[in-house]
Write a structure and sequence with these properties.
Layout lengths: L4 H12 L8 H13 L3 E6 L3 E8 L4 E7 L26 H17 L6 E8 L7 H7 L2 H5 L4 E11 L2 E3 L3 E4 L1 E10 L3 E2 L9 H12 L1 H4 L8 E10 L5 E2 L2 E10 L2 H21 L7 E8 L2 E3 L1 H13 L3 E3 L11 H7 L3 E9 L10 H10 L15 H16 L6
Parallel strand pairs: 3-4, 3-5, 5-16, 6-15
Antiparallel strand pairs: 1-2, 2-4, 6-16, 7-14, 8-12, 8-13, 9-11, 10-12
Bound molecules: zinc ion (ZN) (2 copies).
One zinc ion binds next to loops.
Length: 402
């Protein structure tokens, strides 16, 4: 199907009115109205601001299609005529693309129910950017009330050329962990360091030692990232404070690598404190835990022809170092996940390129997701995104499977 002008209007409206994580009330209202007018049974306020649309269309499996709805605390600098009208908030990750495509796909699947059978579960989740929205919906009883899917399907718009879809089998998005580490020292006058245990020096040596988790403890073929993105201590040059705070962010693809890296961080943080004679061990608050998105090999192979039938060139973009909580819908259901990247960059930017390296270099020059300048082109992105969801859903909901 080609995308109707009303979907373009809806996209521009969502883009103009972005909402932060767990504050997606307006967006949820638009989603619920659109689903109702397409004939879906609708449940709102699932996991706070999430929306679920259901069509029970005879005997057959349940298939979950997922879009996320939240925007980012970013000031848009795209110069688009439909740029954000909300101060300091923008759809810089393209979740408005995901919502528009899934609503258009839902309308098409509802209008063509004679071409498929089973139960369609359209899930519009809040708070992907916090890594909390999928969990919130599942804990709110999503599967108890609507059944468990046989597959989870979804997409994320990315700075690849519009007209392409990227599918990577295996770990496709990294696991993300964030830890707040409070290091305890013993404060005092800056002129009398011998009477103190200086947490600033201890934090500094901990930061440096943590650099060895990847460089010295991880095998060269393994991928892991350890970043200390926040370091706070003290108030004044001549006061040695009592505590220092580190925020550590970890990315990894394999569970065993993740466990080892997190274990190494704990060992180093505790060991450095003990070496410095800290009065008590550090406190570690593991406040963010998002699992890797692992695409199922068989399910990806089975779905690929459907994605191609949507008019896209399907390629393998390799794993993404960003993180996503879509995988939780699949792991909680015990079913496979097929999560693809939807090209959203102007194809004209890629004209004349002949090698993979030229392609990769060009992608690096395009503002990426989360940039204030991130601006996917509407066409053919929306059309291919909607068609991909329709085709993938139909593949998993064949008539007569029973
Ligand atoms: Zn994002
Ligand atoms: Zn995103």
């Amino acid at each position: 199907m080609s995308i109707a002008p009303s979907w373009t209007e809806l996209y521009e409206d969502l883009h103009k009115h972005p909402e932060l994580s767990f504050e997606e009330q307006r967006t949820a209202g638009i989603v619920a109205d659109s689903l109702r007018s397409a004939g879906f049974e609708v449940e709102t306020e699932v996991g706070r601001t999430g929306v679920v649309g259901v069509i029970r269309n005879g005997d057959g499996p349940t298939v979950l299609l997922r879009a996320d709805m939240d925007a980012l605390p970013v000031t848009e600098a795209t110069g688009l005529p439909y740029a954000s009208t909300v101060d300091g908030v923008a759809h810089a990750c393209g979740h408005d693309v995901h919502v528009t495509c899934l609503l258009a796909a839902c309308a098409e699947l509802s209008a063509t129910r004679d071409t498929w059978a089973g139960t369609l579960l359209a899930v519009f989740q809040p708070a992907e950017e916090l890594g909390d929205g999928a969990r919130a919906m599942i804990q709110d009883g999503l599967y108890e009330r609507h059944g468990t899917p046989v597959v989870v399907l979804g997409q994320h718009v990315a700075p690849m050329p519009a007209g392409t879809i990227g599918v990577h089998v295996g770990p496709a998005f990294a696991a993300a962990d964030s830890l707040a580490v409070t290091i305890h020292g013993k404060g005092g006058h800056g002129s009398m360091p011998h009477t103190t245990v200086d947490p600033v020096v201890l934090a500094a040596s901990t930061v440096l030692k943590l650099q060895t988790v990847v460089s010295r403890e991880s095998a060269p073929a393994e991928t892991a990232v350890v970043t200390i993105g926040r370091l706070e201590a003290g108030t004044k040059a001549n006061i040695i404070p009592d505590t220092a705070l580190l925020h550590v962010n970890v990315r990894s693809y394999k569970a065993e690598v993740r466990d080892r890296v997190l274990g190494s961080i704990r060992r180093i943080v505790e060991g450095e404190a003990a070496t410095a004679g800290a009065p008590k061990p550090p406190e570690i608050d593991h406040y963010e835990q998002v699992d890797a998105v692992v695409n199922d090999a068989d399910a990806c192979v089975a779905t690929k022809p459907a994605l191609e039938s949507a008019g896209a060139l399907v390629l393998d973009p390799g794993p993404v170092s960003g993180s996503e909580d879509v995988g939780l819908f699949a792991t909680e259901a015990g079913c496979p996940c097929v999560y693809w990247l939807l090209g959203g960059a102007d194809p004209a930017l890629f004209e004349g390129l002949t090698t993979i390296q030229e392609f990769v270099d060009r992608v690096a020059t395009i503002p990426s997701n989360h940039s204030p300048e991130y601006a996917p082109v509407q066409e053919p992105t929306l059309e291919i995104g909607a068609n991909a969801l329709v085709a993938a859903a139909r593949h998993w909901l064949p008539v007569g499977r029973g």
